[in-house]
Design a protein that fits this description.
The structure holds two protein chains of two kinds. Chain A has no helices and 21 strands. By secondary structure, chain A is mostly beta strands. In chain A, the strands form four sheets. In chain A, strands 4, 6, 7, 10, 17, 18, 19 and 21 form an eight-stranded antiparallel beta sheet that branches. The radius of gyration of chain A is 17 Å and the shape is globular. Chain B is mainly beta. Chain B is built from no helices and 20 strands. In chain B, strands 4, 6, 7, 9, 16, 17, 18 and 20 form an eight-stranded antiparallel beta sheet that branches. In chain B, a hairpin with a 7-residue loop joins strand 6 and strand 7. Classes of the chains: A mainly beta, B mainly beta. Chains A and B meet through loops of A and strand 4 of B.
């Protein structure tokens, strides 16, 4: 970990101070400004009342607050193929818009490298973002996924029109940081702070919610995803 | 009383009055929690709340009504009636190289006939029982017990408690209770910003939860108010 630095962005409604990881200027940690929009999964998060998150479980799948120190949440699927949890923040508070930079990031650890299907990022309201090992977004999404394989894919979609880039390295059981930065025009995807791809087409324009999905793959084992942190920051 | 900032382990830490009174921190992997204004104490989604009610009413913890108070515990009216509240999950753990700050500003309305514990502890629904420490395993905390005004800073590992005594006696004014783990091997305790002692061995290494316990020590309703409570770990 390289620590933290800050820089000032000029926006149409005033300056915004953005703190970023020293490892990458695209890895935003916090922003201060009058019209900044930001979301961060909290320590001690409310996963039970549906007031903060819309949870859709296929089987006996759960999400709980972090038990291991430093982890904000742990998703555990039932031991059945395609069983899993689709979770979205209530509301759709983010929308990519020209000139308005937006950061999304999550630090995740999976218990198997190819035993699950997962998606993390922003998506329009949708209770089944993944169906039978395939992305099934109803409207629009942008983020990262893997589908029963170790191939990590940076992806964005508007109504079934999508752009994908497969990252290197592949998924394993270590913690990794999945991020994208919308620079006001294009989507830039980062894996562990390294730029993987820039996507310039099918950039969603509808309102979206921070989302994460974990499902068990064909093996039908109980899969887990630990969330160290997950945050989204948009400048005005 | 001014906010200053510094870099610690590469993270930006805001502090007030003295180096170890941390107010906020920014960093990619900073772990921080603060009791909110408008906190949810009722659904079990944020806090595990255990009430002891042997009197004629109910012990409660509620959002602050008085400005500046984030929570008020009101006990039932029998001896030992209490509220035991812990944040859900166990998000903090003392670990080498990861300094940690805990702070609580609060007030109790009865200095002698009351029990109080604030700090970090393993999961436990009765941190104090029958006016005696009853932390099931581990913790780092401040406490005072019934029938005394003595306040202690404590570090407990598998049931063995080490303490440092606070020179000031408990009263019914607001005070700030803080401890700071340096990430090396020492926990330093502060009362109203004054260092009261340090513990360098026998501190826990298991996962811990922000915890608050308050009980009446007599057959009368007692209250405990929290102005703020926060934990920050790098």
């Amino acid at each position: 970990m390289g620590g933290i630095s800050s820089k000032m962005f000029q926006t149409p409604t005033g300056d915004v101070l953005v703190f970023h990881d020293n490892a990458s200027e695209a890895s935003w940690v916090e922003a201060k400004g009058l019209n900044v929009r930001k979301f961060e999964m909290e320590i001690g998060e409310d996963f039970t009342t549906a007031k903060k998150y819309t949870l859709t479980a296929i089987g006996a799948d759960t999400i709980v607050q972090g038990i291991v120190a430093g982890r904000r949440a742990l998703i555990t699927t039932a031991a059945a193929e395609n069983s899993g949890l689709n979770m979205q923040l209530v509301g759709t508070p983010f929308q990519l818009a020209s000139g308005k930079k937006l950061y999304f990031g999550a630090k995740l650890t999976f218990n198997t490298a190819d035993g699950n299907d997962f998606f993390v990022g922003l998506a329009s309201t949708d209770t089944d973002i993944i169906v039978t090992h395939a992305i099934s977004v109803a409207a629009s999404a942008v983020g990262w996924y893997a589908l029963s394989s170790t191939a990590l894919v940076a992806y964005n979609e508007i109504h079934a029109n999508s752009v994908t880039t497969t990252a290197t390295p592949i998924l394993d059981t270590s913690a990794h940081i999945y991020e994208f930065l919308y620079d006001g025009t294009n989507l830039n995807f980062y894996l562990d702070h390294a730029l993987v791809a820039q996507h310039t087409t099918y950039v969603p324009t509808v309102v979206m919610a921070p989302s994460i999905v974990l499902q068990s793959s064909a093996g039908g084992a109980a899969e887990t995803c630990a969330i160290d942190w997950m945050r989204c920051i948009q400048l005005p | 009383m001014s906010i200053l900032s510094k870099h610690v382990n590469g993270n930006l830490v805001y502090y007030d009055d003295y180096d170890n009174r941390w107010v906020d921190a920014e960093g990619p992997d900073v772990r921080k929690w603060e009791m909110k204004i408008g906190e949810n104490f009722t659904t079990g989604a944020r806090y595990t709340v255990t009430a002891v009610n042997t009197g004629g009413g109910t012990s409660t913890i509620a959002q602050g009504i008085t400005a500046g108070i984030r929570a008020i515990i009101t006990t039932d009216d029998a001896d030992n009636d209490a509220i035991n509240a812990q944040l859900v999950g166990t998000p903090f753990q003392l670990a080498s190289g990861h300094p940690l700050y805990f702070g609580w500003k609060g007030t109790i309305n009865e200095a002698t006939q009351s029990d109080l514990l604030i700090g970090l502890a393993t999961k436990d629904t009765t941190l104090i029982a029958a006016h005696a420490l009853n932390v099931v395993d581990d913790g780092v905390y401040f406490y005072k017990l019934d029938n005394t005004v003595a306040i202690y800073g404590a570090s407990e590992k598998t049931g063995t408690v080490g303490t440092v005594a606070v020179a000031t006696s408990m009263d019914v004014s607001a005070h700030i209770y803080e401890f700071f783990y340096d990430g090396v091997g020492a926990i330093t305790y502060y009362f109203d910003g004054t260092q009261v002692g340090q513990i360098t061995s026998g501190y826990p290494t298991v996962v811990l939860s922000p915890s608050l316990f308050f009980a009446t020590g007599s057959a009368a309703v007692k209250t405990c108010t929290t102005e703020w409570m926060r934990v920050i770990q790098l």
